[in-house]
Amino acid sequence: MKKYEVMYIIRPEVEEEARKALIEEINTVFTAKDSTVENVNEWGLRELAYEIKGCHKGYYVLLNVNATVEAVDEFTRVANIKENIIRYITVAE
């Protein structure tokens, strides 16, 4: 397993309960694939540098994970499917 930093941006109009459920679902993607989520840092609603999918603001979430390659691949697949995630990046530490 390797350490990764995962950041994703959630649409600003997503309600708090749905946002919490989405964050928990993303954490479960990693834990279901024999990985651990070490830290979840919610940066909150911030102005975007440029418009992404019609949004000028986004809710930022940063994860520090020890993950397998399979878990990172599954996160990428899920993030591409979820309409409420407008952008994401995964960086190996």
Describe the structure.
The chain has 93 residues and is an alpha+beta fold. The protein has a single domain, classed as Ribosomal protein S6/Translation elongation factor EF1B (Alpha-Beta Plaits, 2-Layer Sandwich), CATH 3.30.70.60. Helix content is 31%, strand content 51%. The protein has a four-stranded antiparallel β-sheet, with helices on one face. A hairpin with a 2-residue loop joins strand 2 and strand 3. The radius of gyration is 13 Å and the shape is globular. The mean pLDDT is 95.
Keywords summarizing the entry:
93 residues; alpha+beta
Q: How is the topology of this model organized?
A:
Layout lengths: L1 E9 L5 H16 L4 E17 L2 E13 L1 H13 L3 E8 L1
Helix pairs in contact: 1-2
Largest sheet: 4 strands, antiparallel
Strand element count: 4
Q: Please state how the strands of the largest beta sheet are arranged side by side.
A: 2-3-1-4
Hey, roughly how much beta strand do the residues contain? over 45%
The CATH homologous superfamily is called Ribosomal protein S6/Translation elongation factor EF1B
Distance between the amino and carboxyl termini: 11 Å
Tell me the Rg in angstroms. Answer: 13 Å
What overall geometry do the principal axes of the alpha carbons give? globular
What series of H and E elements makes up the topology? EHEEHE
CATH topology: Alpha-Beta Plaits
Low-confidence stretches: none
